[in-house]
Automatic annotation (TrEMBL):
Entries under Pfam families matching the protein: Beta-AFase-like_GH127_cat, Glyco_hydro127C, Glyco_hydro127M
Coiled coil: none
GO molecular function, one term: hydrolase activity
Superkingdom of the source species: Bacteria
SUPFAM superfamilies to which the protein is assigned, alphabetical: Six-hairpin glycosidases
Name of the protein this chain belongs to: Glycoside hydrolase family 127 protein
The species this protein was found in: Candidatus Blautia merdavium
InterPro entries recorded: 6-hairpin_glycosidase_sf, Beta-AFase-like, Beta-AFase-like_GH127_C, Beta-AFase-like_GH127_cat, Beta-AFase-like_GH127_middle
GO biological process, one term: carbohydrate metabolic process
């Protein structure tokens, strides 16, 4: 049975209070959302203009002018609205809601009589709509509109955006499909598939699930629609000389025949998330098995230690198994977020912690690295090794920035980060009628009806800096339910107590399971041992041979020039280093740093005029190495950075 066993914890029933994540959520609410609204309205001095709201005003007939910006510019405001929706669920804000309602009014005013809504085609010619599904992102924009509409409906109960989105979906349903008179097209950039499944969850309109299933089933079928579309338009196929061809769009084969993650990384994991949704909703075992194969290929052969994916700037894509370069990596922030989307859906079907383990890895490393600690600058690319001069002068590394940017002309990542962090409570905790699963360890207060009775939980933790998590149960009536606490894959030693008594809890798919009758005042204490760990890569990863990454708990660490000097490639860790662990409250908004004795290759035996010389053995100078959390790098000053260290 593939039906979802769990659902995201309702965001209006949880208040996150812990120091780490509450800080991020408040940053999104008080800085990121207002900042991004200014960016969408082109009011950030020195930042690349968005033109997003301007396009909607022009499409609505409120001002003159043509379309400007990326063809998918509409999606930026939809992701912003989704972040707003999540924020409003845990922090009502009349002024923000009013701004969002006005944005929705503007969007609705641009909608066409038959429901169609894409400002690129409204301003450039509606006769051209649905003629370039391969590259022009109509269904991508529709998908993000749907996701925003679903979130805003859940947050406020208001249907206006939901009705606008449903009308656009119904328009797409009337134009795309296998029936006579329809185009047999599907999205070039996926996201609509998972969005439509979410819309169906509200509307129960079979057309919405049918369209999602059609988009998935038709993808990659022969004759290939994308190839036909190019032939009919006479447009050049941009990837005709590439190694991936139509697998850039994950369309080279029917999805059930695919077993390797290929092509554009964000598109891929968005598609796989939709496949998991549809497999669950339609009990499609074959489709789910394809999801499992693709998942395994990603995490076993194509994922960085930070949870990042997408090895090359060429097509922002996957390349081949074990190809994980650190200095030319792409590792788009959106791709790590998409991997989290995929992980959550697979977890909800299986209740298997291996999906939550990856979700945690990507979140603490590959995602929050994409935003500065003050919430005003962003990374598109998240490298694992940086030399500033190389980023300036090596064409193959110019996509690797040494400082986060104020905004981007292609600004998919900033609002994506905002919407994920604003909804993080729903990823941390998932529920069913008789169980609550703790996937991520976030302190806060939750309310849930379990065993037909109201229960309240108070969670305290200093995670990720400390491995102790306590859960206090508060209920008016004794209630029987399952409390399942994830034992992270990185943890080798742990203990569990209830009211001070050790528990020999059964571990099922990576979760310590407590099924009992809980009483008011019961206290559960989980202690996860969190030593510093040296991680090595599979020997087939050529770039990481003879190197290690340093981790503590879920956090990947790095060396930064600010602490260790330049020429970081000259540094070595000792074979069995002893680390000093220290919480530095005033550094980088409060982080645990790691120091250990190491060594640096000496340059004393080298003449500055000599590039090569006979090998006579290395000489070293001792040096203390200081590691900071990877996510916090380049928040002080730009400089070299290194994750994989020689040993």
């Amino acid at each position: 049975m593939l039906e979802k066993k769990l659902a995201m914890f309702p965001l209006d029933k949880i208040q996150i209070t812990d120091d780490f994540w509450k800080g991020y959520m408040e940053l999104v609410r008080t800085h990121v959302i207002p900042y991004q609204w200014e960016a969408l309205n082109d009011r950030i001095e020195g930042a690349e203009p968005s033109r997003c709201i301007q396009n909607f005003r022009r499409a609505a007939g409120l001002e003159e002018g043509g379309f400007e910006g990326m063809v998918f510019q509409d999606s930026d405001v939809y992701k912003w609205l989704e972040a707003v929706a999540y924020s409003l669920t845990w922090h009502p804000d009349e002024a923000l809601e009013k701004t969002a309602d006005e944005a929705i009014d503007l969007i609705a005013r641009a909608q066409q009589p038959d429901g169609y809504l894409d400002t690129y085609y409204i301003l450039n010619g509606l006769d051209q709509r649905f003629t370039n599904l391969t590259d022009n992102h109509e269904m991508y924009c529709m998908g993000h509109m749907v996701e925003a509409a679903v979130a805003y409906y859940h947050a406020t109960g208001k249907r206006k955006l939901l009705d606008v989105a449903a009308a656009f979906v119904n328009c797409a349903y009337e134009n795309l499909g296998r029936e006579p008179g329809k185009k047999r097209g599907y999205p070039g950039h996926e996201v609509a598939e998972m969005a439509l499944a979410a819309l169906y969850g509200i509307t129960k309109d079979k057309r919405h699930l049918e369209l999602a299933k059609y988009f998935i089933d038709e993808r990659g079928q022969q004759p290939l629609y994308f190839a036909q579309e190019k032939k009919e338009s006479g447009a050049e196929f941009f990837w005709k000389d590439s190694y991936f061809q139509y697998q850039y769009y994950q369309a080279g084969l029917p999805v059930r025949e695919q077993d390797k993650a290929e092509g554009h990384a964000v598109r891929a994991v968005y598609l796989y998330s939709g496949m998991a949704e549809v497999a669950s909703a339609t009990e499609d075992q074959e489709l789910f098995e394809a999801c499992e194969r693709l998942w395994n290929n990603i995490v076993e052969k194509q994922m960085y230690v930070t949870g990042a994916i997408g090895a090359t700037a060429y097509g922002e894509s996957f390349t081949f198994d074990y190809d994980l370069p650190n200095d030319t990596v792409y590792a788009e922030t959106c791709a790590a977020i998409g991997l989290i989307f995929f992980a959550r859906r697979m977890f909800e079907i299986t209740k298997d912690s291996r999906y939550a383990d990856v979700m945690e890895r990507a979140l603490y490393n590959g995602v929050i690295s994409g935003m500065s600690l003050d919430g005003t600058k962003f990374f598109y690319v998240n490298p694992l090794e940086v030399v500033p001069e190389a980023s300036q002068k090596d064409f193959n590394k110019m996509h690797v920035k040494v400082e986060r940017q104020k905004w981007f002309g292609c600004a998919c990542c900033p609002p994506n980060v905002a919407r994920l962090l604003a909804s993080i409570g729903g990823y941390a905790y998932e529920v069913s009628e008789d169980s609550i699963y703790m996937n991520l360890f976030l302190g806060g207060d939750m309310e849930a009806v379990l065993d037909g009775k109201e229960n309240r939980f108070h969670v305290e933790t200093h995670y990720p800096w400390d491995g102790e998590v306590t859960v206090q149960v508060e209920n008016a009536q004794d209630s029987e339910f399952l409390l399942a606490l994830r034992i992270p894959g990185w943890c080798r030693d742990w203990s569990l107590q209830v009211n001070g008594q050790d528990q020999n809890a059964a571990v099922e798919k990576g979760y310590a399971c407590l099924r009992r009758t809980f009483q008011n005042g019961d206290q559960i204490r989980l202690q996860l041992s969190m030593p510093v760990t040296l991680v090595e890569a599979n020997p087939r990863v050529r770039e990481d041979i003879g190197k290690v990454a340093v981790m503590r708990g879920p956090v990947v660490y790095c060396l930064e020039e600010a602490d260790n000097g330049d020429q970081l490639q000259q540094l070595y860790l000792q074979e069995q280093p002893e680390f000093q662990v220290q919480y530095e409250k005033e550094l980088l908004k409060g982080v645990v740093t790691l120091t250990a004795r190491g060594k640096r290759v000496s340059e004393k035996q080298w003449d500055a005029r000599t590039l090569y010389q006979p090998y006579t053995g290395k000489s070293y100078e001792e040096q203390t190495l200081k590691f900071i959390p990877y996510y916090a790098w380049t928040n002080r000053e730009p400089g070299e950075m290194l994750v994989w260290v020689r040993i």
